[in-house]
Amino acid sequence: MPKSPIHHHIFSIAHRKSGYDIPLHTRLGTEFLVLLIALMTYLLLLSASGSIGLGHMADKWVSGLENAMTIEIPASENAQKQAEKLAEKLPKIDYVKTARVLTQSDIGDMLSPWLGNDTSVLSDLPLPTLVSVELTKRTPATTLSIKNTVNSTAPEAIVDSHEVWLVDLLKLTNGLRVTALIVFGLILFVTSFVIAGAVRSRMAMHQRELELLHTMGATDKYISLQFIRYIFSQTTKGLGFGVLAGLMTFIFFAVFTNQSTGTLPELKMGQIDWIILASIPFLLLVIGTFTARQTVYSVLNEMP
Amino acid sequence: MPKSPIHHHIFSIAHRKSGYDIPLHTRLGTEFLVLLIALMTYLLLLSASGSIGLGHMADKWVSGLENAMTIEIPASENAQKQAEKLAEKLPKIDYVKTARVLTQSDIGDMLSPWLGNDTSVLSDLPLPTLVSVELTKRTPATTLSIKNTVNSTAPEAIVDSHEVWLVDLLKLTNGLRVTALIVFGLILFVTSFVIAGAVRSRMAMHQRELELLHTMGATDKYISLQFIRYIFSQTTKGLGFGVLAGLMTFIFFAVFTNQSTGTLPELKMGQIDWIILASIPFLLLVIGTFTARQTVYSVLNEMP
Amino acid sequence: MIKFEHVGLRYGIGPEVLSDITFTLEQGSFHFLCGPSGAGKSSLMTLLYLGRKCSRGQIHMMGKDTGKLKRDELAELRQKIGVVFQDFRLLPHLSAFDNAALPLRISGVSEKKIKNHVEELLDWVGLGDCMKRLPATLSGGQQQRIAVARAVIANPRLLLADEPTGNLDDETSMKLMGLFEQLNKMGTTILIATHSTQILDRLPHRRLILNQGHLDIFDPNAQSTEPPKMPEFLHA
Amino acid sequence: MIKFEHVGLRYGIGPEVLSDITFTLEQGSFHFLCGPSGAGKSSLMTLLYLGRKCSRGQIHMMGKDTGKLKRDELAELRQKIGVVFQDFRLLPHLSAFDNAALPLRISGVSEKKIKNHVEELLDWVGLGDCMKRLPATLSGGQQQRIAVARAVIANPRLLLADEPTGNLDDETSMKLMGLFEQLNKMGTTILIATHSTQILDRLPHRRLILNQGHLDIFDPNAQSTEPPKMPEFLHA
Ligand SMILES: Nc1ncnc2c1ncn2[C@@H]1O[C@H](COP(=O)(O)OP(=O)(O)OP(=O)(O)O)[C@@H](O)[C@H]1O
Ligand SMILES: Nc1ncnc2c1ncn2[C@@H]1O[C@H](COP(=O)(O)OP(=O)(O)OP(=O)(O)O)[C@@H](O)[C@H]1O
Ligand SMILES: [Mg+2]
Ligand SMILES: [Mg+2]
Q1: φ and ψ at A159, to 5 degrees?
Q2: Which residues of B touch C93 (CB under 8 A)?
Q3: Is residue B15 part of a domain?
Q4: Residues B218 and B83 placed together within one structural domain of the fold
């Protein structure tokens, strides 16, 4: 909180901050800009890493769904046998990687939320037998071959190729990505707008000093450098806080996901992703400095 | 964005805003306070309604779990008969409201995520028969009576009284409520801190004017009233925006939940809840004005 | 009216700017305050308009010990003092009219009365057609005249003017001095700090002479043009 | 050095404050600028230090038509002009030293040279022990002396001073006038706006007299103490 300047006047000896003729480094209003930049950085980091993470998650889900099929054989006496036959035959089809019969306990895990953990109950239930198929690539031919093979081996079985899900999921993830991009752009826009505003209001605040410097023959460059340096240092400070907050959130998130039971999909970042994230502060710095420069020049140009 | 004041000086004729000797109503730095109050109001509204909603949801869940039991009779030839017998006997016990045998389709609904929507598959499965019991009040005696009755009628059946869940859920909801309260208090604290800061920085900005007024014999009351009025009007503006944003969020949320498939629990608000929410802006206004008053007086007291 | 007893003033931890000042100004008197630049004239003024507390000694004003007054009583006292500051101190966002009207607004006079009084006075000082303009659009002398108008508008019992004619031509200066004399005749106690030999030569009022923090009184009527230090007047 | 041709100035949509001003100041000349309060002295100064564009006419300075210069050329020209503003315009957050050093910093002089020059000059104007203090802690006269120091520190080719002694005692005033005369002898063109009869009486320089936006030139050496309007000097 700023102390009443009169105290400052009386008790202190003046120290000119090297390079500044205009008291931009005084505390009034400074916190605002730093805070805002910090917030913006944080939001940018979150939205970027969110969209990156979402992308990975979606890729994983999509490829999981795309390269997987499930075959359900209704409970019957030879269901198990049919299933085993399928698990043998299917891998011979092109692009089929594996085919595996799910055991009782696999199914039990899936059903436990509904039927309780009591395995004795489960063993009494005549559950369907499931065959999980993994593909390396999904082609219409492969899908057809699988269906044919299933039909001939276990006519009652149902092939779940997840097609409806796939389309929905792609729609959703694409929508989310576009949203994240829009948010990203919006934040950048708001940031440069706010910086321009901050520069203008600081210049209006120090109008008299500016005019004096101008009158004494200071060039636009001489004056603008002080503002640019100021905005640069404020932005850097804000970026620092924002990145710090972002890192803390990541760490928190990492610890949290490690402790969790695994229901949250993991957000593993690649090298490129880290580079993208790391470039965000620089992007902000460049935009901030550039905006400041343009604003200062446009205001200075109003002077004779 | 403020225009360069020199234009203001040259082209305009001065208008004193009635009641203000200090140019508090000028635009510099004003947006910040309004924005901040708006944000704070919005956050308060969200956190309050969130905690209210959570409370209701938790109550509903708890009472749903507390006053319900499920009895599972493993699939066997006389399961259905035993279930029907239980549904007959159980309502005679004190505090038992209803006991109902769940139909195949009830169970089918529950299992469809796992076994697909194909009802033909379902009919082939020998599912356990479930009896859902609704209580008016859960007492140990009731629980015991139910268990005894079940034991005598269907010895293989399992009574699920949800006790573990209940404790966990209560812990969770209480935790969330305390968190919401802490957040609420924190926001109030930050708000009054920020208002005090804004007042102090405004006073520092207008130090010369303040000193002049003081020197000319203006009483503390005369000066402080201008600041209080200013903070009051800024706070009111901010509150307006915050409440607006809050309302928009509510409406959005309401539309969204109506459209959704019903998986999101509904956030129905009672009359008292609305009163609590409506009182938040007033609380903020009172706190803001009071803080402003205290701050102005404490700064003025530093003058001789 | 005003009684200084061994008053000293230092700013912060600096040296004493005024040291051991003792004097009395009677009700309705007219004095000039002279001394070289940096002698402490403005500082003495600051003590007089209660803008600062003295570091030692006692100041009595209008029968009250200023060191013992409550905040509200001090404010009341200040309302009876009109000040022309050396640097004008006009409020930059208020029009000439509103600046001059400030003391009346502070003491709660009705807007109608304010309008009449202020317009008449501003007309008289030659600013009739600048009333709605901001100080920044006025010339140095015009600003100084507004500062004078603001100081006298509420008919103060004590008028302090710090170099009130530094930016004015001789004619306007003498006109303002006439205004001060008129106020003085109506009972206002007046103290004017000035360097102007022009004014000092023409008006025969007593002078307080400050030098390096010490005060002497000199009466141009009693002794022709000799230097200060006259014990008789300290007793008068 | 300076040539005004039919120059007029109006602020915004107001009336013409200066109308049809034509005059020439030669390199190395010394002039006073007189006229009643509000006559337009400071406005004329503003045009001279290129703080504003004239509404009509042409201003030539140091051989250039100021209306046709680019921004950087204007800045360069301004660096050669020293100004003492009527209201000082010291930067409130900079010490006396830094205020006086400003023109040197702007023209990129080395810090070592700045230290030597500024300290010497401030010592000379009697502010040797106030160098690190902020303007707000200085007396009116002390501030004015810093303003003067700032105007002359970079050894300008044109020195404009608007009422540079309004807050100073006679002795200091004459000392500063001596400084100006010294600079003038070294080739600086000087124009000083003043009300001080003291100064005008003692120094026999030519006077530009402004009245209601019109300019006359008066030479106290040629004609003893008569009023202005002498066509001979307009041709000289
Ligand atoms: N706020 C302040 N803090 C510290 N020192 C101050 C302050 N105001 C004035 N001084 C110092 O006190 C001394 C007296 O200052 P003061 O303004 O009273 O002089 P003055 O007689 O009014 O001079 P002038 O004729 O130049 O206005 C000066 O040396 C000045 O530097
Ligand atoms: N920025 C401005 N906007 C509008 N009018 C102005 C502005 N500055 C000065 N004026 C007007 O122009 C006229 C001349 O002003 P100027 O400051 O040049 O007078 P001056 O000769 O310096 O007077 P003084 O001796 O009082 O300083 C005055 O009537 C003044 O009100
Ligand atoms: Mg003074
Ligand atoms: Mg002027």
Answers
A1: -100, 120
A2: 14, 23, 26
A3: yes
A4: no
Residues A176 and A288 in one domain: yes
Give ion ligand 3 contacts, CB < 5 A: C 41-42, 86; D 139-140
Predicted ipTM of the assembly:
0.75
CA-CA distance, D107 to D163, in Å (whole number)?
A: 26
Which CATH superfamily is C2-89+156-235 part of? P-loop containing nucleotide triphosphate hydrolases (3.40.50.300)
Please tell me if residue D63 touches chain B, with a CB cutoff of 8 Å. Answer: no
Among the partner residues A22, A214, A219, nearest to D72 by beta-carbon distance: A219
Q: Which of D232, D229, D187, D228 is nearest to D30 (CA)?
A: D187
Establish how many alpha carbons lie within 13 A of residue C234's alpha carbon, considering only the half-sphere containing its beta carbon: 12
* Contact of C117 with C150, CB cutoff 8 Å: no
For residue D139, give the nearest of C38, C145, C170 by CB distance.
Answer: C38
- Residue linked to tokens 């076994």: B115
Separation CA C109–CA C124 (nearest Å): 21
Distance (Å, whole) CA C91 – CA C82: 16
Chain A residues with at least one Cβ partner in C under 8 Å: 10-11
Tokens 């949801």 sit at which residue? B57
Chain B residues with CB within 8 Å of chain D CB: 10-11
One domain for residues A175 and A46: yes
Domain count, chain B: 2
**What are the boundaries of each domain within chain C?**
2-89+156-235
- Let me know if residue A69 belongs to a domain: no
Please tell me if the CB atom of residue C145 comes closer than 6 angstroms to any atom of ligand 1: no
- pLDDT-derived band at A46 (thresholds 50, 70, 90) equals confident
Measuring CA to CA, which residue among B53, B8, B10, B44 is closest to residue B176? B53
The tens digit of pLDDT for each residue in A152-208 reads 888 878 777 766 666 776 777 777 777 777 878 888 888 888 788 888 878 887 888
Ligand 1 near D99 CB (within 6 A): no
Triad C17, C23, C24: Cα angle to 5°: 135
Helix (H, G, I), strand (E, B) or coil at D194: coil
CB-nearest partner of B111 from A1, A114, A116: A114
Q: B115, B136, B156 — which closes off a domain? A: B156
Q: Identify the pLDDT of residue B239.
A: 92
Give the Cα-Cα-Cα angle A13, A15, A19 (nearest 5 degrees): 165
Structural domain range at position B246: 5-62+167-302
Name the residue in chain A with its Cα closest to that of B107.
Answer: A114
Interface of D with B in 7-36 (CB under 8 A): 11-13
Chains with 3+ CB–CB pairs under 8 A to B are A, C, D
* Residue A56 neighbours by CB distance under 10 Å: 17
In a shared domain, residues A151 and A287: no
Name the residue among D75, B6, B3, D134 with its Cα closest to residue A23. Answer: D134
Check C86 against D140: CB less than 8 A apart. Answer: yes
- Alpha-carbon gap, residue B188 to B43, rounded angstroms: 10
pLDDT in tens, C152-175: 999 999 999 999 988 888 888 998
pLDDT in the model for residue A156:
79
What is the pTM (predicted TM-score) of this model? 0.75
List Cα–Cα distances, C129 to A5, C95, C119, C121, D35, in angstroms: 36, 12, 10, 12, 20
pLDDT score of D144: 94
Closest protein CA for atom 23 of ligand 1? C38
